[in-house]
Design a protein that fits this description.
It is a single chain. With 184 residues, the chain is of the alpha+beta class. It has a single domain, classed as FomD-like (FomD barrel-like fold, Beta Barrel), CATH 2.40.380.10. Helices cover 28% and strands 41% of the residues. The protein has a seven-stranded mixed beta barrel. The protein is globular and about 55 Å long.
């Protein structure tokens, strides 16, 4: 499997279980790329929904993807703190300069004080019926909700106290390098 390269600009494609595209983020800069982890950043990037609508992200975000865990985490840097939007999803794959995963509807929103809320349970149940999620997927996702909550409570991975500082610094550095290269 090809791996994304630090500083590379990639797209993010979210699919549904039935294989249909759900959402596309136009540009994300890779800050770290290994076979298991991709950490990226984007700011004011165009997002295209499955119905063709587009919108622009409002704030800088650090994105965390893992090839072994059934979730990904978007860390949104807002003026009043960091908000985390956690998607229960398939592990990512990297293909044709694109990070790809299947979105399984369930989400956890984490607030700056590290309180959290499980979202979209009704949507999950509806899509589980409509798209016939296998029982094994249902079990994996429920285990990963528990794992994700454990990470939040233990401040692991993208929820660790220094995660945002480290990766926003790396993002600023990569942007400077890219800007300097563009002006030469």
């Amino acid at each position: 499997m090809a791996m994304p390269i630090e500083g590379e600009i990639v797209q993010i494609h979210s699919y549904k279980h039935n294989g249909h595209i759900h959402r596309v983020w136009q540009e994300t800069m890779v800050l770290k790329g290994t076979k298991n982890i991709v950490i990226g950043a984007n700011e004011r990037t165009i997002v295209t929904e499955s119905d063709g609508r587009t919108w622009l992200t409002r704030e800088p975000s650090i994105c965390y993807f893992h090839a072994e865990h059934w979730f990904n985490v978007i860390c949104m840097l807002r003026e009043d703190g960091v908000y985390y939007y956690c998607n229960l999803s398939s592990p990512f794959v990297f293909d044709n300069d694109t990070i790809k995963y299947i979105d399984y509807d369930l989400d956890i929103k984490v607030f700056p004080d590290m309180t959290y809320t499980l979202l979209d349970e009704d949507e999950y149940e509806q899509h589980k019926r409509e798209m016939a999620y296998p029982e094994v997927i249902d079990q994996i996702l429920k285990r990963n909700v528990e794992k994700l909550i454990s990470w939040i409570q233990q401040r692991r991975g993208p929820f660790a106290s220094d995660f945002i500082d480290v990766w926003t610094s790396r993002y600023r550095l990569q942007r400077e390098i890219k800007d300097n290269n563009a002006s030469q």
